[in-house]
Amino acid sequence: MSRHHPHPLLSRALGAALLAVAFLTGPVLHADEGWDPFKQATSQISRPNLLIVLDVSGSMAWSPVSDNIQPGVDSFGLPRLRWNSSWIQDSDGNWLILWSLTTANRPPCRIDMFKNALGNSVPIYGTASTTSPYWTSPAITWPSSWPTAHGGYTYQGGGQWTSYNYQPPFNARWTAPDYSTSPPTDPTIDGWDPGLTPSTPPQDLVGISKNKVNWGLEIFSTELPDSYDMGFGGNGNAYVLQQVSADDTQSTQNTNAANIESFLKPKALYGLD
Length: 273
Prior knowledge:
single chain; 273 residues; alpha+beta; 4-stranded antiparallel beta sheet; 3-stranded mixed beta sheet; 5 helices; 9 strands; 19% helix
């Protein structure tokens, strides 16, 4: 007599169905019996090991929307600062130079946005759009008095100084924000804090998931020294900054996540560029 053998996939499906029925019709486990099958299953699952591979070549200082827009590392979406100068006469007819601090839209660069998503330090300011200017930086309202005095310069309000000097009163640049501190360190201009609010605070994906994921960090660029060469595709140099550790011990993963977060600080605070 011949026997009919079911297809292997059908056999597996029938086996799974019978197992499910056995669980459903088996003895009921009460909470006071001290055994939770779902907790038992999840506690035996190993954490995923994830290696971040980050491009640190020069193009990471460019805008995400266009290679022709190159705001530079540590731009954060903050307004670009520039000095304009013009000649004016005082009430006695003497000629003075009027130094005016002006602003313009400037997007964050690619590595800033990467740090914002994965790290705990870098905020993003302003908003993106699909039409020109593609990024709108926050507006600045200049104070009536400037907190830092500069000899030979008189602050007139509105971000303007008068002087006989042929150089502006200070270098027009932002300090780096750092939202890993408490309270956060806001960006300032020459000691003045305009009180800007980030449109996107640091998302800190590495930090908030360090109890679920074993993180690592590797950088690559043709601009890295040959001594860092680890054969990344034979076309560039790569270097592991934080090795992924398969050790699920939380203290180990806390340390590894903190190390990665330190690399994801602004360049001015010794982060990657």
